[in-house]
Amino acid sequence: MRTALVIGTGLIGTSAALALAARGVTVHLRDHDPGRARTAAALGAGTDAAPEGPVDLVLVAVPPALTAGTLAEALRAGLGRGYLDVASVKGGPRRELERTGLDLTAYIGTHPMAGKERSGPLAAGGDLFEGRPWVLTPTRETDTEVLNLALELVALCRAVPVVMDADAHDRAVALVSHTPQLVSSMVAARLEEADETAVRLCGQGIRDVTRIAASDPRMWVDILSANPGPVADVLAGVAADLDETVRALRALESGDDADRRAGASGVADVLRRGNAGRARVPGKHGAAPAAYETVAVLISDQPGELARIFADAGRAGVNVEDVRIEHATGQQAGLVQLMVEPAAAQALGEALRERGWSLRTG
């Protein structure tokens, strides 16, 4: 791949363009808002000048509702040798394209499983896809050369290719992406009119659950409108669990011992099933989830403190597998939780204490 045209310079399009440009591909940028394309170009994602002829790959990174129309225009104009999209749903756009009667042998649907709460070119980064799954949904009609171009794109973005059927993909993302967004938003909505005293008690648990609730509602309306059935199916299952859990909690309020035992059993059941489901979530680099030990370090809100912690961990020869930061309400301080292999936890704690860090135990 020597040349590419990225249509849509939001978070995903600009991030892909940055990764391609960094690896020597000449990238042309196009957006319905020329200002966004200029911003992406200024970030080093390519040029907003039109290509002189057909490019090797046309990457369409527009909202799902616009994906099929944008692809159809690009195909009719003969803008490239191969065409792909990065929409978060795959079945609908494919069927809409098929209804145009266009030759789709040069097209493949894809979806990088990466994103942020923020959108737009300024949120983009060339490392956004590194180590993340990138779904490819070829059909029997997909030209081998186009599949190879898509695989090259994934490799240049340092992602991990995953081949799936389009409708199976849509059912999967309904479970692992679209439903979590709605559930996160529903929990966060409970805080909108909550008493200020309750809000001040927010800790890491509520921050973890509501992190993605900060996402752009307009973007998510587009996504959910393109995949409503599978998301509704998953939510129906969640609703059934909620109903059972509410009944179990009401039973715990009962004065009857049998009711309380039944209630406790119901609550324990959903918690156990949650443990079992969480254990299936892949860990680092897609490997089986690992049980890490946490080294909790008190940190002041001063420039360079996080970098100093990681540098000190590196000097101790310990690899930090994951990190969480919990800010102290109303204070210029917080708690950094460093997740490491259990065998390395004691050595890291001792090394950090020697370097003057205050650790929280228990």
UniProtKB/TrEMBL annotation:
Positions of the ACT domain: 294-362
InterPro entries tied to this protein: 6-PGluconate_DH-like_C_sf (IPR008927), ACT-like_dom_sf (IPR045865), ACT_dom (IPR002912), NAD(P)-bd_dom_sf (IPR036291), PDH_C (IPR046825), PDH_N (IPR046826), Preph/Arog_dehydrog (IPR050812), Prephen_DH (IPR003099)
Keywords on record: Amino-acid biosynthesis, Aromatic amino acid biosynthesis, NAD, Oxidoreductase, Signal, Tyrosine biosynthesis
Annotated ranges, domain Prephenate/arogenate dehydrogenase: 2-283
Enzyme Commission number: 1.3.1.12
Pathway(s) the chain acts in: Amino-acid biosynthesis; L-tyrosine biosynthesis; (4-hydroxyphenyl)pyruvate from prephenate (NAD(+) route): step 1/1
Gene3D superfamilies named in the record: 6-phosphogluconate dehydrogenase C-terminal like domain (1.10.3660.10), NAD(P)-binding Rossmann-like Domain (3.40.50.720)
Coiled-coil residue spans: none
Family (UniProt): Belongs to the prephenate/arogenate dehydrogenase family.
NCBIfam families given in the database record: PRK06545.2-1, PRK06545.2-3, PRK06545.2-4
Xref: PANTHER family: PREPHENATE DEHYDROGENASE (PTHR21363), PREPHENATE DEHYDROGENASE [NADP(+)] (PTHR21363:SF0)
Protein name: Prephenate dehydrogenase
